[in-house]
Amino acid sequence: MFAYRKDQSRPNTLGSLGFTTTSKPTVNLSEFKYQRKAEIFGEGEPAVYVYQVKRGAVRSYKLLNDGRRQIGAFHLVDDIFGIENGAKHRFTTEAVVETIVCLIRRESLQLEAERDAAVSRSLLRLTSRNLEHAEDHMLLLGRKTAVERVAAFLQEMDRRTGTNCLSLPMGRRDIADYLGLTLETVSRAVSRLHSEGVLKFVGRTQREIVILNREKLQSFDLVN
Amino acid sequence: MFAYRKDQSRPNTLGSLGFTTTSKPTVNLSEFKYQRKAEIFGEGEPAVYVYQVKRGAVRSYKLLNDGRRQIGAFHLVDDIFGIENGAKHRFTTEAVVETIVCLIRRESLQLEAERDAAVSRSLLRLTSRNLEHAEDHMLLLGRKTAVERVAAFLQEMDRRTGTNCLSLPMGRRDIADYLGLTLETVSRAVSRLHSEGVLKFVGRTQREIVILNREKLQSFDLVN
DNA sequence: CGATCCTTTGAAGGACGTCAAGGTCTGTGG
DNA sequence: CCACAGACCTTGACGTCCTTCAAAGGATCG
C-alpha cells in the first residue's frame, strides 16, 4: 500500500507563505502563489487565514498514522476553504497544480461577522454547503461501488466546472484518495466508462475528458 | 444484499406526529413520542421543525435507489437534529427505540437568530460540529478497515454516553450501515475485540458492553 | 412454548487491492 | 534532434478482505 508521510519539519503557515504580492502585511486581502504540491496549511495548525482559490486547484485531506490518505474535498477557482469554527485547521491542504489564493485574516472575518449579520449568514451558508457535500460523500464512501463513485466524481466535476470539456487538475491517485479507492481501480473504472462510450479523451493526457453521454453516465450512479 | 424500501405512502411530518403532549399547537415547544422504527421526517420533505432528543435514540440516513443505506449519524439524548440551511431535510430520520423528542418551529428559530446574535452563533457552532463529525466519518468510511471502524464506533459511543457501561440502542445492522459494512462483518469484529479481551458483554443481550481495555481499543484505531 | 427477531459463525464467492510490467508524455542534457 | 530519466496511466495476474449465503443459537413476546 502506498503511504503518505507527514512532513514533520515544515515551517508554520505564515513562514511558508512566500510573498508574491506587494500588499502590506496589515492589509486584509493578499494574494499568494503556491507551487504544485506545496502545502498551504497543515492539519492541527492554528487557523489564521481563510482562503479563496483564484487560480489552480487545492486538495484538503486527512492522514492516518500509517499513511492512508482521505481527501475530503477539492477546491476549485472561487471556492473558499480553510474556514474553521475552532482554533485549528482540521485538514491539510496542498496545491494540486500551481495555484493562486487570496487570503483573509480569520480574525477580521470574525469581527466583520459580529457587526454584519449578512456576513454571519454567508458564513453559516458556506459551512452548511460544506456539510451537505460531506453528507453526500459519506453515502458515496460507505455504499457506492467503484464505478458508481467514479461516475459521481465525473458528474460533480462536470457540474462544478461548467465547461463542456473536463480538464482535471488532479491525477488518478488524488481521485482515488477522494473516492476511497486505489488509483488502479479508478483507472479501470474510467477505462470502462470510456469503452462503453460514456466519455472520450481529448488532448494527449488522460485528464482532459469530454462527457459524450450524460444520461448514461447518470445511469452508472443511480442515487434515487 | 439487504435492501431498504422507502415507504411511499407515508403521511407527512405533521400528520405522522401523534400528539402525546397537552401543549397548544401555537406554542413553540412541544414534546412528541415516536415508537421504535417510526419515521420522524423523510429526506426531501420540507424542514418545518428542528428536533432535540429527550429520551431514546434516532438514526438519520440516506438511501440509494436499490435500498443500500448509509446512516450519517446517531442522535442521542440532548442531541439536536433536523437543522437545515435549505428548505428541505437531507436525511430520513427514524426512532431507533421508543423516543421522545422536543421540537421547535424552524421558522421561530430563524426569527430568533435574526434578532439574537448568540442564537445565530450557536446555530453556526452546531452546524460546524456536524461538519466536523462528517469529516471524521469520511476518513473512516474511505480508509479504515472493519476492525478499525468498529473500534472507532465503540470509542465514539463510549465518549458520548459518559457512563462506564455502553448500552447500545441500535442493533448490528444499524451499526453496519453507519460504518459502511455488513452486519456480519460488524459481528465478527466485535467478536474479535471480545476474544482479545478489549470488551465484555453484560446483561443478556449483546448490546450492553463494558470496555475492559481502553488503551487496547485505541490501538485498534490508531488515527495519529 | 412456538414465532419472530437478532446475533453469531462457517463456507464460498466476488469486488477491490496489491504487485508487476509496459506504454505515453515531459523535461533535460548530450 | 535524440537519448534518457521520471512521472503518470493502463492493464494483467493474483491475493485478500469483506460480502453473500446459509444455518443455528439465544432472547423476547405473544
Tag the structure with descriptive keywords.
38% helix, alpha+beta, DNA-binding, 224 residues, 2 domains, homodimer, 4-stranded antiparallel β-sheet, Jelly Rolls
The rough form of chain A would be described as globular
What structural class should be given to the helix and strand makeup of chain A?
alpha+beta
Q: Please tell me the total number of domains of chain A.
A: 2
Multimerization status: homodimer
Strand order of the largest sheet of chain A: 1-8-3-6
**How much strand of chain A?**
15-25%
Percent in helix of chain A: 25-40%
- What are the segments of chain A in which pLDDT stays under 50 over at least 5 consecutive residues? 9-27
Describe the structure.
Two copies of one chain form a homodimer. Chain A has 224 residues and is of the alpha+beta class. Chain A folds into two domains: 13-138, Jelly Rolls (Sandwich); 144-219, Arc Repressor Mutant, subunit A. Helices cover 38% and strands 23% of the residues of chain A. Chain A has seven helices and eleven strands. Chain A has helices spanning 13-16, 106-115, 117-143, 146-161, 172-179, 183-195, 214-219, and strands at 30-34, 39-41, 49-55, 58-63, 69-75, 80-81, 92-95, 99-105, 165-167, 199-201, 208-211. The first copy, chain A, has a four-stranded antiparallel β-sheet with strand order 1-8-3-6. In chain A, helix 2 (106-115) packs across helix 3 (117-143) and helix 4 packs across helix 6. The radius of gyration of chain A is 18 Å and the shape is globular. Chain B binds a DNA duplex (30 and 30 nucleotides) through helix 6.
